[in-house]
Amino acid sequence: MWKIEIYFVVKILLSIVLVMFFLKTESDLKIIIKDQLTSEVLPFSSVSVCGENYVSDERGELIIKNFYGRCTVVVQRLGYVIFREEVLLRDKKTIVVLLKEEPI
Fold first, then answer.
1. What is the pLDDT of residues 84-99, one digit of tens each?
2. What is the distance between the alpha carbons of residues 66 and 28, in angstroms, rounded to a whole number?
3. In whole angstroms, what is the distance from residue 31 CA to residue 64 CA?
4. Residue 70 burial by CB count (10 A; 0-12/13-18/19+): exposed, middle or buried?
């Protein structure tokens, strides 16, 4: 009798662990930064993801490895309006940021 109960408890615990594993899926987050009017890439833009600071490459791209969860992405570039968006990995794996020129 105890063996049957232990078997079901182990089976339930294993199911919970598997569900938690699939809910916390890690993946790469790719951010591409472009000008809103011309669609030209904007290289070397300042990017903040979950409070960590990065710089996009010469193609206006940034890839963050093993990203998961929810956080705020902030993109800044001189002469452009600051971009802010909350990101949830299940919603997006690639974000195309279209920066709008800021009038001087």
1. 999 886 656 888 999 9
2. 5
3. 8
4. exposed
